Backbone:
């Protein structure tokens, strides 16, 4: 019998959450001031939770390693946030969003969690509009929507190409109101380095002040982890350089199970790698696939000529272009889900049709020329210009595209020095989001009582592949509309507990453990930088645990990471001291965690003998190269239990996925 109790309530899927909420215990307003809650991470999930819980009257301590919550990586999200409001009258509904999300995740997500997400999605938009988030609007003043991959409706609300930034500013303004009232104590430039358990419950954290180096003890009646994903285990990813797994990994080592670590999202529209000294990758929003057409040359000789600089993409005639997504997936075309689009790009480049002049020839085109002409003709007619010149049509079309995507085009040109209005963008898949994370039950509580996990840090809503514009949806849903109910049910037992003291043996032991680890790094007589090891790990992860995996490569990755770990602990050099700003010391702690996580990811991928969503095992694909699931043996969540320093000894538990309200089928985006 599984050790994992998901606590999914009984009943019809459409009534499950509302009926469940009605029977959860509450904390009365006059008692909330007696309860302390720690929140680690202040992006959309953590920021919305902090603002909401403080507004309710709880005492909140919020921690972020950035200099301000406004710098959380949520700010980097460009394209939009999903909600089932059917503003476009094209057949959307809560059920369709629920279905699209389950199908997009290749039937590897919990039904109950996903339906709840779809149910509260509309509330997110209302909340954010009330906060003043400047969503795009149509001519008549209604909120506008656009399409994203994996759907046939327009349900994505957006604010130009900076949706994450605007949503985060909304949550941050709500936080600031509570900071001003004294209900939120904000700890900027602090990093959580351990979780403290007292009598088996999460009762606090050990944090390092990243400015002074001071090690601090902080207590609470419950701890919320909302620290984002772990894509930087690959070194090169679209994540901010500081994004890490440390908070999630520390609670894993304290007893929180880590679920589906191998589920990594490869985003299809990133600027290709351009050199060995590159430190991160830049995402181009999926919203660009609304109007951009993806292609490579049909002829190998044309692809070679482009790579060698003898031809330009504009030299390739229309009939000599392979719009391979439109060819392979006519029903969805360029808006297939991210995992499908990414593998299709890899297949074309592996076959020799890549257009980027780099070592691996990895690159395809994202072309807006057809959209510019279409929009130009439309705008000319609306403006009363019935015989515009071709130049005039292009001018008008570029104005429309600029209004929709201007900041994204500007960003691309600043990075590449190419004008995307005149020449197609170059793109290639890259590591982006992680669907795996800390295992949580329906209440968003981990296997540690009192330790809750929100947003990308948990595993709960996206299965094996996240649909575009669903990350912002989950983060805000968890923080604004789920955790206030579920954490109250847990905290109802603590209204008479009183403040949690920090002078206990448990806090002492945790603090000493943190200090010992930091002292080791500073006193180790190594010769190699932290980045040296991070890059080595990243190469192994991308080449053998990346977009395509196989048994031999995964076994090699596990062994190779073992060797990198040994080398790291023997030869890493961390300059500086602990009692001051020391970015290398910060990185050393994070890379130590990435090395262990990377090994677990390879183990998880090795054990999952099927292909599903972003987890593509080369041995398990159909005759057309699509994912081949094994629903008989792998229709479950794999949750790993930490049992000691040797990660290879972790114990794998299974939570069965029971689909009562959706019929499982092979994913089909062709018709």
Residues:
């Amino acid at each position: 019998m599984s050790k994992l109790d998901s606590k999914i309530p009984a009943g019809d899927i459409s009534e499950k959450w509302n009926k469940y909420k009605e029977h959860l215990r509450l904390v009365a307003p006059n008692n909330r001031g007696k309860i302390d809650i720690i929140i680690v991470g202040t992006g959309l999930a953590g920021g919305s939770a902090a603002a909401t819980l403080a507004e309710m009257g709880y005492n909140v301590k919020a921690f972020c390693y950035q200099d301000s919550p406004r710098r959380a990586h949520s700010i980097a999200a460009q394209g939009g946030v999903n909600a089932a409001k059917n503003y476009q009258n094209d057949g959307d509904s809560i059920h369709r969003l629920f279905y699209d999300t389950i199908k997009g995740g290749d039937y590897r997500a919990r039904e109950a969690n996903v339906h709840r997400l779809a149910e509260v999605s509309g509330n997110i938009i209302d909340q954010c509009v009330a906060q003043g988030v400047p969503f795009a609007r149509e001519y008549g003043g209604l909120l506008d929507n656009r399409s994203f991959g994996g759907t046939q409706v327009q349900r994505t609300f957006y604010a130009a190409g900076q949706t994450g930034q605007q949503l985060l500013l909304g949550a941050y303004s709500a936080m600031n109101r509570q900071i001003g009232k004294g209900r939120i104590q904000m700890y900027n430039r602090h990093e959580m380095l351990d979780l403290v358990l007292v009598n088996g419950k999460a009762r606090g954290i050990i944090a390092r002040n990243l400015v002074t180096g001071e090690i601090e003890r902080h207590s609470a009646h419950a701890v919320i982890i909302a620290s984002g994903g772990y894509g930087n285990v690959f070194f090169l990813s679209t994540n901010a350089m500081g994004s890490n797994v440390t908070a999630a990994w520390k609670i894993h080592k304290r007893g929180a199970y880590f679920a589906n670590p191998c589920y990594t999202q490869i985003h299809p529209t990133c600027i290709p790698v351009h050199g060995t000294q590159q430190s991160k990758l830049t995402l181009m929003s999926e919203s660009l696939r609304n109007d951009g057409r993806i292609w490579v040359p049909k002829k190998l000789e044309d692809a070679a000529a482009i790579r060698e600089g003898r031809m330009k993409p504009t030299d390739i005639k229309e009939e000599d272009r392979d719009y391979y997504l439109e060819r392979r997936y006519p029903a969805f075309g360029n808006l297939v889900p991210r995992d499908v689009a990414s593998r299709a790009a890899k297949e074309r480049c592996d076959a020799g049709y890549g257009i980027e002049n780099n070592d691996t020839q990895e690159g395809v085109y994202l072309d807006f020329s057809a959209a510019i002409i279409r929009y130009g003709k439309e705008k000319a007619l609306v403006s009363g210009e019935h015989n515009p010149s071709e130049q005039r049509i292009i001018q008008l079309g570029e104005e429309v595209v600029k209004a929709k995507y201007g900041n994204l085009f500007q960003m691309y040109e600043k990075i590449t020095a190419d004008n995307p209005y005149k020449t197609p963008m170059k793109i290639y898949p890259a590591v982006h989001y992680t669907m795996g994370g800390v295992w949580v039950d329906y209440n968003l509580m981990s296997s540690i009582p009192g330790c809750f996990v929100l947003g990308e840090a948990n595993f709960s809503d996206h299965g094996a592949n996240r649909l575009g514009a669903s990350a912002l949806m989950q983060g805000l849903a968890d923080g604004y509309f789920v955790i206030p109910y579920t954490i109250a049910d847990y905290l109802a037992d603590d209204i008479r507990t009183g403040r949690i003291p920090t002078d206990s043996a448990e806090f002492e032991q945790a603090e000493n453990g943190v200090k010992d680890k930091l002292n080791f790094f500073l006193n180790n007589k190594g010769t190699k930088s932290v980045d040296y090891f991070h890059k080595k790990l990243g190469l192994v992860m991308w080449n053998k645990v990346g977009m395509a995996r196989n048994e031999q490569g995964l076994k090699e990755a596990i062994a190779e990471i073992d060797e990198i770990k040994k080398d790291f602990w023997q030869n890493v050099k961390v300059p500086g001291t602990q009692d001051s700003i020391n970015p290398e010391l910060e990185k050393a702690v994070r890379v130590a965690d990435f090395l262990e996580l990377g090994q677990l990811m390879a183990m998880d991928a090795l054990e999952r003998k099927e292909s599903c969503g972003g987890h593509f095992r080369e041995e398990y694909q159909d005759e057309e190269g699509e994912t081949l699931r094994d629903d008989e043996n792998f229709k479950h969540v794999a949750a790993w239990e930490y049992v000691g320093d040797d990660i290879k000894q972790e114990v794998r538990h299974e939570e069965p996925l029971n689909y009562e309200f959706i019929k499982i089928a092979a994913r089909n985006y062709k018709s």
Summary: Residues 194 and 206 are 5 Å apart (CA to CA). The mean pLDDT is 96.
